[in-house]
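Hi Y.,

Following your request, here is the sequence exactly as I used it, all 273 residues.
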Amino acid sequence: MEALKSLAKPFRRNDRGMTAKGAAFRFIFSQVRLAAVLLPLAAAGLYAENLSFTEFGVAGDLTVLGQVGANGGTSEPNVKIKGFTVFGSTQSAYIGIVPGNGNVVINGAVSVSSGAYFASTSTFHSARAIYINDGIAGQVLVKTAGGYLDWKDGSALTGVSDWTAFPFAAGFSDLGGGWQAVQYRKIGDIVYLRGAIAKISSFAVGDVLGTLPPGFRPPAPVSFACLAPGGTAGINVIADSAGQISVADTIIGHSAPERTRADLSVVQFSVTP
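Below is the corresponding structure, written out as tokens. Let me know if you'd prefer a different format.
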């Protein structure tokens, strides 16, 4: 070290009256103190690229200790990152953001467990980039009185929902053979059913054909006479406020096949109380 070599030179006073020997020992002492700080950091995997500490790296874990109110706060946080920040790999250019103080790029996935607050607008590259776990196809998001978004039937906006396959109970199915499949839809506040249903055996009073979802149910029970496709007999069905479509009575047909099928196209009712 040059500082040690200088100790062998003749002593002379500097401009402030300090001898060269005293200045040398002061310099060495400052270097020893700096080494005492850097060596433990280096052993922990932290290193300084230069003495100004403008850049450093961490090989391993980095823990920042602090306590809001004692060592940190709104004006003096425990960690201050005021420059342009990139998590993950760097790029020659960044989509939708420019390098600038306070801007952050995350090249990887982010998991937020305690909620997030966005003070300004946010941009997604496409609607398909947004995935929400709950809800069902055809529903739309509507703002509630509490300020939250909630799923509502699509007809809440358009007044017309798509034809949807009827949710059969066990033992029931579409009649097939070219007959219309059983479906339901809503126009305004009116629910419509269409299609022919079949059962493996003869219909019986109390049979539940299927259950309509919330939003497609009458406020009180309503009944309908449903004939067998191509026949003169059939069943009386009831749609109730729980959404169940069930057999209330049977009309004895002239042949066994007429007792196992029915056309539900006559079923329609209002959902308004």
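Residues 132-159 form one domain.

Thanks again,
Q.
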